[in-house]
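Protein data sheet
==================
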Amino acid sequence: MRVTGYTFGIAVALLLATSGAPVAVAATNAAPVTVSVHGYFMPDDPTDAMTSQLIDLMRKDTSLRIEQWGGIALPGGWGRSSLMMAFAGNTAPDIMRTFFHGIRSDQAQGFLYPLNEWIGDDRDGNGQVDPSEAKWAGWTNIPPLWRMVATVDGKIYGLPIPEITYTGIIYRKDLAAAAGLDPEKPPPGTSFSTGASG
């Protein structure tokens, strides 16, 4: 894994950038640093909110080069298969997006780098970085349960961010009616809005 202090320090800046919080980054004349990002940066879609904020972050810090990470595409593979192959081959992205419940598993397998030097340290030995121990104010904005999941033995291995996922079913009303169902009435205990007929 390509690990530098600057690379993982950028993780905090990326979280701020993608959460909508203002990020003040001074442009520098330092040698360019390339950070490969999985799941947050889609340069083919600059209208994506996270991508546009990361592009703005690069404008503010001219030494920063964010690139979209792409792994091996496995036939029939899905989910995290590309990431798992990248970890095995030591070609994983510098910063990745993962499911919240995967943080502990990834940490146990040695895939994650602790972020304490930028966020804070567990000084009282309770296994967590409490708000009073945080040197990055954003840590206190993360709900306590989420902070606990991202922390193992006082080491912080991720920055949970809130997201909303909507799940829906698209169906043909004519086929639902042909099957004897009323396409305008959902089953008891559910709700939905109907679209155009057809």
